[in-house]
Amino acid sequence: MIGEIDIFGVFVPTVLVLMLIAYLINIVVRKVLTLIGFYRFVWHRSVFDLGIYVFVLAAVIVVSHRYMPN
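and the corresponding structure tokens:
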């Protein structure tokens, strides 16, 4: 996972790309939780959203590490 990704000649850190993917997934998860009314049971929404983001980021990193070639 160490290294950069070449996007049209610009080298972008791999972690930055993974963080962007996790953020997009996090937006979808937050929308779903809002639609089903889950946030009524959450004490502090901001901290909960941060925890979800960290969890999704960890999952994206594990999946990318497992399926990306070295």
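(Above: one complete record from the training split.) The chain has two helices and two strands.
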